[in-house]
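Let's inspect one such protein example.
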Amino acid sequence: MNSTTSAQAGDYGRQFADFYDRLFPPGKAAELTAEALTTLLPTSGGRVLELGVGTGRIAIPLARRLGHVVGVDVSPEMLTVLREAAEREKVDITAVEADICDLSPLGNQDGFDLAYCVCSTLLLVTNPDDQRRALREAAARLTPGGHLVIETHNIPRVLSMAGGQPILTFFVPTPERKAGILSSWFIDKAAGEWRTSQVLLEDGTIHIGSEHLRLTTGEQFDAYATDAGLVPTHRFSDWSGTPYTEEGHMFVGIYRKPVNGQ
């Protein structure tokens, strides 16, 4: 990962670590994601790697099911929250500080049956060459027959929501939590850039964070995965298995590492 992209990813962790789990609370959605991921593993279980593990929103429920998950993240702040949560929840997660574009800190840990990168983490990698590198790094760590799963915002839907305008602002209330999220989007379609600001209003307090993302489509990720030697197998719009459409909420792409070239 180049220094600019790495700094952006690290800055995300510094901004969001303290309130990420309140923006995206653990619960039914995370459990559904974890359950869907387990279906890609051998019946006897398997070795699992999360790219951009963050605070463990997905890794923790997955570790409950599988016994152990390895997770990498460039943010020491996020990993501190993760380690505390894993100890509190009594789950086994190996947390490694590393860029998803350079997995050398994993050492000789490879042969993973599943690697996954969710919650639009790959969009935070704003250099397309670095996105390609991240997929090559993940593919190299997979065992033959293993799968890589990518989940991001569905870019055609994002652009449709913006209605061709460069700026979009909206508020999502969550009365049961005495909270709400104010979001502002700044989209530069020509440059392929999407900047967002998130303001969490919660019980009289305010938390603010910003993101710089690349408008990478599913077709582009399919091409990057193919270049990395993986085979696209499925596309969904959610974790319930809804077939992908441009109107769908998310892009979920599944890729398989061939066995003996097949």
Remarks:
- The first strand starts at residue 48 and ends at 51.
